[in-house]
């Protein structure tokens, strides 16, 4: 028996890593006394399967976790799936909130293999709306956007362009985020996860590269650039959706709600559809 | 007080492990500051991962926050990248709960568990925006305090710390808080008076038993020799000798009740329940065993309650039953059996005993309790030969070790780790090479069960510690330790399955510099810090040259500060602080060590009057009046087989009051001989 949870990761806890979140879940599941299935061997661990790793520092409205239960004990104890979000939310640290839980079929593919793209909202600083709009248009028009990416501990050149499925400057930035300098701009994106997931910082590196700026890592965290005075710096990133694409349709992994792929890659598509 | 979080948050995207700085642990207290409550910032002067699990800090954190007139928050040393970002942005040291500036607290209190963190202490005081030297502080600044094992020689930090607290903190922390509330907070803090107010406060604190205020003492040096002549109180109401605090019954203090569960992985990431405090095995190199006497066991039913409630609350799947020698706990077997048979643990909780005794019996217990996750077993024979182990009073026979290792390999373990010390008093090359001989035999035993067993001998350089019988011993030089490491390395090379790991002799030397220094070591520590020497416990930042340069600049040498044998007559910088042990007991034990005489564990043999019980009117709290079954360690008796016991004990209790002058001198000669 396998239960899939959808949860959010918001606020200070975004600074913890994917591994840390896994351990928080293990402790909460043990405290809830769920009849977990364990791995074999000298060091048995609960069988948990997370989806795509969320970069440390990014928030998310759409994280997923599959929990395997011991089939015999799950039947004996009886597991009330509907009550689990309430029970576990009280046991998880502040900032992790379960939004839904459902029994899922055991599949030969892991969540990580099934998810094909993710939707993101980002907040960039150090750049004006107009300038960001120019960069977005340039990136979308480009045939290739080579950036430096880290792979197995080595930096190598990789084309970002095929992974950018949709990209636009956000309609507005919330009032409380308003920056009097006019240099805080929202960005929405849908980024492919196959063959490799693109991280928000890598997208920003691409936006710098297309306008002739250096895609050097040293720009991250530096608010201004002496030459142009307009280098976008990633301030916040939030994964808003993970998608499984099948036969031209995008599916939300927990409830299977369907959104046509390609027709509208804009932000909040699922929220509008629901 | 205003939260610094809005300024801190933007820095976190640029630093490694940003969750070190966010707080939010399970068990973190909701702290609301009021004018009536004294505010404490409890600081562990190393990284979050190293400091968070510290049980002493967590105990005081809870006790203070349970009081209506106190609040406590925590802080840890920011890693070098974060410190640089903070200094660049003008952000001071902050608490992890409310992200308040350290300088706004009434007290900044450090836990000192290791000497090499001293430069971090200075750095954190500075990062808090507080003058590093105590003499430069005014009434507007927090009181800087320190506690923990290292304060039994407070002098190297005397220039920087306003007051030290000796011994168990459970009771005295409240007594200190009452003084602070009366003199410091609310109206008291706002009152005019400047430096005078601060001096009054410190003088009042100096009268709290267990509290040492260095500024209330004069230090005299012998003009002719330059040696320390004495440390004496400046005021009639200041105690000449500061005695440590001792709680009589651990059962009265079931803390931590709400052990912190961090969001990120830390060292010792598990539930910890303290079985007992103190140890009377009497290992002569072991400062912890000497300064925490007497033995006070926690009642077994309380241990069980703390374990089951703790696992339930935290969701941990591992519990460590901690103490200096956990297998010596009365009824250890029943206690661990009750835990693993608890249905709530559903067979998935592992129990660990961090300090295993070296005997087959203990391994049997370990096999039973580690049936869930079985990694490696660790034993600590400490010395390579029986002669060496008699000198250090770690009375493990070879047969005990081999039986323990045999039991471990036969019951499924494939990795065994052995801890040894080199640079011990009277050590010869034969003693050093005994380490390889023992380890080699352990590999041979293992090969009977598996073709691919590994034995790792982990070798540390011995640093003589204060308040122990070895406090007079001149530490081995870097060259001597390096020679011994080479001996071990060469002898171990042909032995398949044996790995030797060793501690950097340079770090051993640096630890020696700060361990036994007097107040003149303060400027040395300050210079190392000013030249960038923080995180000296971390090999990537440790730099011996910083230390030797600072010594030289202050007119000192390694030869005199570290390598020199102290004499019986010499005034030691820590003579005015007391862990309860009579000086003449320690001197007698030092002479016994050099004569290769053992000393039995006084839990089960008559008292030899070390002073720890009699001086404080307390006694051992031990549920069992007889030694644990199996093994000879420390008891000097072969309880399992009734076999011959080769231990030489003194026929009578040491006549500490009247030490003969002769053996002292020859003792030192003997040590020197041993080195050549």
Radius of gyration from the alpha-carbon trace of chain B, in angstroms: 25 Å
Global shape of chain B = globular
| Tally of individual domains of chain A | 2
What shape does the CA trace of chain A take?
A: elongated
Count of beta strands of chain A: 12
The main sheet of chain B comes to:
6 strands, mixed
First-to-last CA distance of chain B: 62 Å
Secondary structure class of chain A reads alpha+beta
Short description:
The complex is a heterodimer of chains A (274) and B (676). Chain A has 274 residues and is of the alpha+beta class.
Task: List its traits.
heterodimer, A: 2 domains, 10-stranded mixed sheet, two-stranded antiparallel sheet, 7 helices, 12 strands, elongated, disordered C terminus, B: alpha/beta, Rossmann fold, 6-stranded mixed sheet, 4-stranded parallel sheet, 19 strands, 13% strand, globular
Secondary structure topology:
The complex is a heterodimer of chains A (274) and B (676).
Chain A: E1 2-9, H1 18-31, E2 48-50, E3 59-68, H2 71-77, H3 84-89, E4 96-104, H4 111-114, E5 117-125, H5 129-141, E6 146-151, E7 154-159, E8 164-169, E9 184-192, H6 200-210, E10 233-246, E11 249-251, E12 258-260, H7 269-273
Parallel strand pairs in A: 3-10
Antiparallel strand pairs in A: 1-3, 1-4, 2-3, 5-9, 5-10, 6-7, 8-9, 10-11, 11-12
Helix pairs in contact in A: 5-6
Chain B: H1 5-8, E1 38-44, H2 48-51, H3 55-66, E2 70-76, H4 80-89, E3 107-111, H5 118-127, E4 143-147, E5 163-165, H6 172-183, H7 186-190, H8 194-206, E6 211-212, E7 217-221, E8 228-233, E9 242-243, E10 271-274, E11 276-277, H9 287-291, E12 296-297, H10 300-314, E13 318-322, H11 332-340, E14 350-352, H12 360-369, E15 377-382, H13 386-391, H14 398-410, E16 415-422, H15 429-447, E17 454-461, H16 478-492, E18 498-502, H17 505-515, H18 522-530, H19 544-553, H20 558-563, E19 577-578, H21 583-594, H22 661-675
Parallel strand pairs in B: 1-2, 1-3, 3-4, 4-5, 9-19, 10-13, 13-14, 15-16, 16-17, 17-18
Antiparallel strand pairs in B: 5-6, 7-8, 11-12
Helix pairs in contact in B: 5-18, 6-8, 12-14, 14-15, 15-16, 16-17, 18-19
